[in-house]
Design a protein that fits this description.
Blueprint: E1 29-30, E2 41-51, E3 54-62, E4 66-68, E5 91-93, E6 106-112, E7 115-123, E8 132-139, E9 144-151, H1 155-158, E10 163-166, E11 173-177
Antiparallel strand pairs: 1-6, 2-3, 3-4, 4-5, 5-10, 6-7, 7-8, 8-9, 10-11
């Protein structure tokens, strides 16, 4: 109801988006060590981000492949859609799965004048072979883009990713992918 639309870069799309992945693994701020299993990293975005009917300037980054605009619910579970009292409010979920940073992987961010880039780089859950590299870009005009650079997990295991956005009231959102509602995902 606020203008968000699910669009892709698939060639079958009427007006496909341009794939604009900007690798920040060498230039971004690494915050992996600052995020514990049940806490967030608090980031001042540097601008007011229009998210549904709200203007947000602070975003909370979780280690499970999602961000939120409300830190009142600890991120101990993977996010679910539609939300419930055990899920954080105002979620933007890029991966939304259990991730382990013991052997590999980093969480990075980079602020630019008109956007914030949050990248989960070479992350894994600790038992699947391979890794994932993906990023969300939040533009100051309210646009949200997800870019999947590397999805090196078995196809059957990719189905457990929870990809969606949802407002702070749990009343409006867009589900992109989850176990019982899969979308084909590509590198």
């Amino acid at each position: 109801s606020y203008g968000y639309k699910f669009r892709t870069s698939y060639v079958t799309e009427t007006d496909p988006l341009t794939y604009e992945y900007q690798d920040i693994s060498a230039t971004g701020e690494n915050l992996t060590a600052l995020i514990k299993d049940d806490t967030y990293y608090t980031l001042d975005m540097g601008f007011e981000f229009p998210y549904y009917s709200d203007k947000m300037s602070t975003i909370y980054i979780a280690q499970k492949g999602f961000t939120t605009f409300d830190n009142s619910v600890r991120p101990i579970n993977v996010p679910s859609f539609p939300g419930n009292q055990w899920s954080p409010k105002g979620i933007i979920s890029l991966l939304g799965t259990y991730l382990s940073y013991i052997a590999q992987g980093d969480i990075l961010y980079q602020k630019e004048a008109d956007r914030v880039i949050i990248q989960y780089n070479n992350v894994s859950d600790g038992w699947n072979p391979g890794s994932l590299t993906a990023q969300m870009v939040l533009y100051s005009n309210g646009n949200i883009r997800f870019f999947y650079e590397n999805l090196d997990w078995p196809t059957d295991n990719l189905q457990y990713l929870n990809i969606f956005i949802e407002d702070l009231a749990y009343s409006d959102g867009i589900l992109i992918h989850r176990y019982n509602n899969p979308t084909e995902l590509y590198n």
